[in-house]
Amino acid sequence: MTALPDTAVRTETAGRTLVITINRPKARNAVNAEVAEGIAAAIDELEADPALRAGVITGADGTFSAGMDLKAAAGGEVVNVADKGFAGLAEAATTKPLIAAVEGFALGGGFELALACDLVIASDTARFGLPEVKRGLIAGGGGALRLPKRIPHHLAMELLLTGRTITGERACALGVVNQLVAEGGAREAALTLADEIAENAPLALAAVKNIVRDTAGMSEREGFTKQYKEIEALLRSEDFAEGVRAFSEKRAPEWAGR
């Protein structure tokens, strides 16, 4: 595992996974301009390196993120990044799977960062909430848009309208969290899941993300049309040919990403 310099966002490689750590523990890993730019740069690093198959996003010292740094925002800092939105991730069109590893608080923009990921692993001491309405705002970093698509409408409205904080156990029961682990175990569990995902064909993983993202507002017929195009491209790929060969030869495939 190779670590890069200790900055507001730290990146390290763990096998075929890029671990992205928000590193402002004294500010409960709140998102300021430096964090937003750092996450955006880390996402670019993940997307550009063919050896990396997945990303894990977490926070330093037992806290995921307390959300937007209100003092920084009041001082004029910009926490949105062009083409990637809030915290350099909320509106990013990523092709590689992202896993949030949540310890402690994931509040406001912190919860929205988790919602921007494809999978969420959380410790049993994690806490989730969208308290923006308590400050005269709304969950504008994806919370108001994504949460009602992830859980039943009335339950999402309860969290959005009350600003209430829920436990990791409750978040898991609602389906926001994929797996609940003991305190301190979210990162390792996320890396284990990332390793399992990395065994699969990278082009197929990207196609899954494209279909899920791009068909969200489409009719079923439009969705199938989009899906056919993705499948046609996969059928022409070297990876599909390798997958068939590996299956017939009873061995693990060696993906080329082409």
Automatic annotation (TrEMBL):
What InterPro entries does the record tag this protein with? ClpP/crotonase-like_dom_sf, Enoyl-CoA_hyd/isom_CS, Enoyl-CoA_hydra/iso, Enoyl-CoA_hydra_C
Q: Does the keyword Lyase apply?
A: yes
Q: Is Transmembrane included in the keywords of this UniProt record?
A: no
Record-stated family:
Belongs to the enoyl-CoA hydratase/isomerase family.
Protein name in UniProt: Crotonase/enoyl-CoA hydratase family protein
Q: Which UniProt keywords apply?
A: Lipid metabolism, Lyase
The record's section on Pfam families has:
ECH_1
